[in-house]
Amino acid sequence: MSDFDEILYLLNKQGWAVSDTAVPGAWHASLREQAQRLWDAGEFSGGEIGRGANDGRQPAVRGDAICWVEPDSALAQHPFFEWMARLRQALNDSYDMGLRRHEFHFARYDDGAGYKKHVDQHRGTNYRKISIVFYLNADWDTTKGGELCLYNPYDPDVELQRFAPLGGRLAVFVSGYMPHEVLPSRATRWSLTGWMRTDDLIRA
Ligand SMILES: O=C(O)CCC(=O)C(=O)O
Ligand SMILES: [Fe+2]
């Protein structure tokens, strides 16, 4: 059994996996500290959607602020990213996915913010293959909304399941396949969100 067997099995079977135990240690706490530090330093900016002329920043659609993890930063040495590299290798070994790199940003949803239903591949591109969300909210109050809501890929009006953004919880899903949404959050909601890609570019 590798650390990743359950994730690999569920991804193949249903297109998504959510685990509270897959990511070891208390990494969500140290990553949250890093996110807070970057927020305090003014390093976050508004999240954008899509790539087209009418896309860009639309807070009513996507309400988070984000801060990319720079590949050459000290932060990129956090063991979470080495663990991600091993998950990426396991996906390639099992499913021959040709994943070449991953990119991650911190996301902070302010009180009232959410992200309307979407899939994670931009129109006309399909480099983002696997989406990852690692939640950084210790002691999350589940009455505050902010759930990740997954929908049926064949009938996106049908909700499959929703998940509170509990610290240490990992959500993994097939980027171009799973419709999903962040329900409006009534508390500040922190996460580390990323994609595994089949190209060499970042942030395209
Ligand atoms: O934070 C989440 O639960 C999902 C975020 C998301 O869908 C995205 O950033 O594309
Ligand atoms: Fe998304």
TrEMBL record:
Cofactor(s) of this protein: L-ascorbate
Keyword Oxidoreductase listed: yes
Signal peptide as annotated in the record: none
Domain of life: Bacteria
Domain (Fe2OG dioxygenase): residue spans on this chain: 100-198
Keyword terms of this UniProt record: Dioxygenase, Iron, Metal-binding, Oxidoreductase, Vitamin C
Pfam family, one: 2OG-FeII_Oxy_3
Protein name: 2OG-Fe(II) oxygenase
Taxonomy of the source species: Bacteria, Pseudomonadati, Pseudomonadota, Betaproteobacteria, Burkholderiales
